[in-house]
Every structure is written in C-alpha cells, then in structure tokens.
Design goal:
It is built from five helices and no strands. With 111 residues, it is mostly helical. The longest helix has 23 residues.
Length: 111
C-alpha cells in the first residue's frame, strides 16, 4: 500500500506520515486504513487531547527511544531471546546490542 501511493509530497510526506503513525500507535504493529487524505490519522488525532509536543530535539529523542525499544523487543522475540542471533540479525556487534537491551530495560527472559 505504501509503495503504490504516489507520494506527491515526496519523501517528506512519507516521513511525516510514518512519524504520525508511530506516535499514534501503542503496539509493535501499525495498521494503515487509508493513505492520501490520511483520514485514519485525522480521526485518531481528534481523540488525542492531552498530548502536547515539546521541543524538536526532545521529541526526536523520544521517537528514537521508542523505535529502539520496539525494534529490539521485536528482534529478540523473533530470535527467541538469543542475543547473539538477534545482534547478527540486526547487523550489530553483540556487545553493542546487549548494551542497547540494557539501556531499554529489555530482559531476554521476560519478552
């Protein structure tokens, strides 16, 4: 669906769309109902009343942390908690991958 849409706003429109989807979805799976007018996002935005965006760098840091945590947890689940296999899959050194797991409080025995 994402590849089929023409993205008249170029990569910036795609980037903004993905950012909005990631902010509006709580789980590891993002569902897309409709692209274009992005009515699915507009509908969900109207339900969010208490969230206020902060400074750009703060929001970027929050988004990166959310991505890292979601990605690491997904890879660890896919690799049945095996850190070495997960690190290889992610293209990272095992020590670096293990530090990221520790940073985000992800325990391989508690996925």
């Amino acid at each position: 669906m994402l590849e089929a849409y023409p993205w008249p706003g170029n990569v910036r429109e795609l980037e903004n769309y993905v950012q909005k989807l990631s902010l509006l979805n709580d789980g590891d799976l993002i569902r897309i109902n409709k692209i274009g007018g992005m009515s699915d996002i507009d509908d969900e935005c109207s339900e969010i009343t208490n969230y206020t965006f902060g400074a750009f760098n703060d929001e970027k840091k929050r988004a990166v942390n959310y991505f890292e945590r979601s990605y690491l947890k997904s890879v660890m689940i896919k690799m049945d908690g095996n850190i070495s296999q997960a690190a290889r899959y992610a293209g990272k050194e095992r020590r670096s991958f293990a530090r990221l797991l520790e940073k985000h409080g992800i325990d391989r025995n508690n996925l």
